[in-house]
Each structure stands twice: as C-alpha cells, then as structure tokens.
Amino acid sequence: MKHSLRVCWLYHDIMDLYGDKGNMMVLKKRCEDRDIDFVLDTCGIGEKKNLCDYNLIFLGGGDDKTQFSLIPDLLSRKENIKQAMDENTFVLLICGGYQLFGQYYTASDNQKIDGLKFYDYYTDTGADRTRCVGNIIIEANLDGIKTQIVGFENHGGQTKNVSKPLGKVLSGYGNTFDSGYEGFYDGKILGTYLHGPLLPKNPVVADFVITKALQKDDPEFKFEDLKPLENSFDEAARDVLFKRLNVEK
Ligand code: GLN
User: How does it assemble (predicted)?
Assistant: First the structure.
C-alpha cells in the first residue's frame, strides 16, 4: 500500500514562532526519503477546508495578540476539528496552539479567551508576567516508545490540570514553572511547549507523528514499519543540548 501524509497547517501565516515551520520541512523530508507521498496544505483565517480530508493537523505557536485574532475562526471550526479527530486525524500542537485546545487562555494583560474546550487543561498567565524561557529536555513515553525530547520554550502561559502530560521535565520548565511535567499526549493530540523547532532535533517524535497520521488510512501501520533513516546530524544537534544542560543521554 502506497502511504501518503496529508497535512493541514492551520494559520500557517501567523502561527509560526521560533521556526515551527521547520516541523513541516522535516516531515516532508522524512516522507520523501521513504517514498511516502507528502501533501502540505495550509489554512488561513476564513479559508474553507474540510479538516477530515487530512491525516495530520498542525498548529504552531504565536504571541498573545495573534492567538486572540484567530479565535473566532478557530471556534467556528470546532465541529469540523472534532469530527476529524473522531475519524483519527492526528493533531500536533505547539505552544500557543496547544493552549487553544484546552478550556481557556488568559494572557498577561488579563484578557481571557475561550479555547476549543476539548480537554480539561487551562492556561493562566502569572500576575508578575514572568515567562518560562530556555532550552528544555523531557523524558516521554510515546505509546511504549521511550524517548528524551529536546527543544526550546518561551511562554508566559502556565498550563494546569493536565491529566496526561507528554513527559517529565529533566531540565527546563514545562507546563508551569514548577509542575515538573510538560505537554499533553492522549493518543489523539500531541501538545507541547517545545519549539526549537520540535521535529528536527527529535527524529523519534517526527517518525512517531508520521506513524500516528498514517494510521488514519492504515490502522495496522506500526512505527517499526518506517524505513530507518540516518540521523547522525540530528543526534549531533541533540548532543549539544544534552551537554549544555548537563543531562545524561
Ligand atoms: N502567547 C503564549 C504565551 O506566551 C504562547 C507563546 C508561544 O506560542 N510561544 O504563553
């Protein structure tokens, strides 16, 4: 069976902080190297798209003002996103995108917006307006695949009531300054504060995301079915961070 990865990148033109676009480039390259068709579609405010047509939805990070600007459009797509998720479209969310799938987001100026409310987690910003900024390493278990995920975080939002964190923080902050946990993963969405961008420095996560997306069309598809690729460049980039943060690999 010829596989294809069909991605819809939501708000590609405004939600693209700290190189989130690099995630799309990595998915493209890792699919091409395996003869998997790769289709990248984008969806801006007001554009008509049926998200059920894709096997991956991607939403990157953005500043508060941008997050507020897209909320009416995002909420208008709630039923369609829900239907796509019910039909096993996988969802990858970075930072601001991750926050918007929860109950609400309160920005540093106390303005509050509703999220999609698919999950119980919610995001407040501390009164002192301090931000979680810096390199981060977490330890995650992706459906049995144990991996250390590296990245860069920069968020004022403090995400609480996270029932299923993506991983345990080894160095850095994560969902809040002191929760010790980072992100959210429940088999349907992977939400994380890790920019950097996420996928170039984490080939295991990139392949995991490809696997989850391909399973929409081929439920039997497994992570091990992906042809192994040469990752020495990615590993060298990871090594720098492990050394700098003094975390054992
Ligand atoms: N505006 C949000 C915050 O500061 C998200 C920022 C981001 O996506 N990096 O918490």
Answer: Forms a heterodimer with MurT.
